[in-house]
Specification:
about 375 residues
């Protein structure tokens, strides 16, 4: 499979705030599903499409993202030519004139590409596919841009972009989180367009002094540009806020969703860390949960996701919770509807109870 396109992944979204989880890291670098980062899914989709040149556009807080992606070897993108490129904000001139100078780095990256098209994906969605059908649909149409959507409808989130289309599927208007949606077609954060059109759009944006080129800004050009739609029907997990993140994570415990994300024809790649398998003590109990390598379970875990190296003490109970890497949970601890960032210590006898709609979030490295 080969899709003649350069990939661009937008690693952050200023509208998305995941409480303490996104404070030390970009949205794309937030851990997800026990052993992955959010960016792994979009990046895997591009790798599975045969895309060999991918740029990751970042705003700030990209250190953990760079550590995770490394040379791109986990995604078969460590190449002498093309490969994976981190595109942090930088200036192409010696002096800082305005914020739009940062876009010139993206323009330079795209202009150096030999591919015909550009596929852009954001970091607010998690799904597993390849872009061959999207590519073919665009190639066989007269559209200048083709965008992916599904029928999620408006969910009351800032990241919801509802598309109004005509009877031929062409976008005729765009609405950002409308109170009264005109349709249930929610933009999926993925679009394909020609390299030349992408360069023209960036150049126009730079000339207007705009600091960033968002996909919503591109969509709003639908009155001037022929933008077509492509429907995606398989499960999609959306991440617009901390409640979305918690709900999306818990949906992975649903066998049908889990199979669609992880057991389709296309694998999900990530940075591999070799650790011993999870250890579950004989008198412990684990039910409907995801446990990563290196976990040691001496208590009860139910309907939860535990990342690498999590230890749960004796008589402790973890329910409906997400526990990040290397967290140490003491004895006689009770956690329910809690999200715990990495390297946290939860002392003996601690009891933390949140709600499904408002989970308790514990920041990285805290001692509770």
């Amino acid at each position: 499979m080969f899709v003649d396109a350069t990939g661009i992944i937008v690693a952050d979204d200023k509208r998305v705030h995941l409480s303490e989880l996104s404070r030390p890291r970009a949205l794309a670098a937030v851990p997800f599903a026990g052993r992955y980062r959010i960016i792994d899914f979009m990046l895997s989709n591009m790798a599975n499409s045969g895309i060999t040149l991918v740029g990751v556009s970042t705003f700030n807080k990209y250190k953990s993202l760079m550590d995770h992606l490394g040379t791109g070897s986990a995604y078969d993108l460590d190449r002498k030519l093309q490969g994976l490129h981190i595109l942090p904000p930088y200036l192409t001139s010696e002096n800082y004139y305005n914020e739009s100078d940062d876009l010139k780095g993206l323009l330079d990256f795209i202009s150096g590409s030999r591919h015909k098209y550009v596929i852009i994906g954001n970091s607010t969605v998690v799904f597993s596919t390849d872009f061959e059908d999207l590519y073919n649909a665009h190639e066989n149409s007269d559209a200048e841009i083709t965008v992916m959507y599904n029928h999620d409808g408006a969910r009351g989130k800032e990241t919801d972009i509802i598309l109004e289309t005509d009877d031929k599927g062409r976008v005729i208007d765009v609405y950002s989180n409308p109170e009264k949606p005109v349709s249930d077609k929610n933009f999926l954060g993925v679009m394909i367009l020609s390299k030349n059109l992408m360069m023209d759009l960036i150049s126009d944006t730079v000339s207007l002094g705009v600091s960033n080129l968002s996909m919503e800004l591109i969509l709003r050009k639908c009155h001037k540009i022929n933008i077509n739609t492509y429907e995606y029907n398989d499960p999609v997990l959306r991440i617009g806020d901390i409640q979305d993140y918690f709900e999306a994570s818990m949906m992975l415990l649903n066998p049908e969703v889990n199979e669609a994300i992880f057991w389709s024809k296309d694998p999900v790649y990530t940075k591999v860390k070799d650790e011993a398998p999870a250890y579950i003590e004989n008198r412990s109990k684990v039910h409907n949960s995801l446990l990563a390598d290196g976990c040691h379970i001496y208590g009860r875990v139910c309907d939860s996701i535990l990342f690498r190296g999590v230890n749960t003490g004796k008589n402790s109970e973890v329910k409906n919770s997400i526990i990040f890497q290397n967290t140490q949970i003491g004895n006689n601890v009770e956690l329910e509807y809690v999200i715990v960032d990495k390297d946290v210590i939860i002392r003996d006898g601690t009891r933390l109870i949140g709600q499904k709609e408002y989970p308790v979030v514990i920041g990285k490295g805290a001692v509770v």
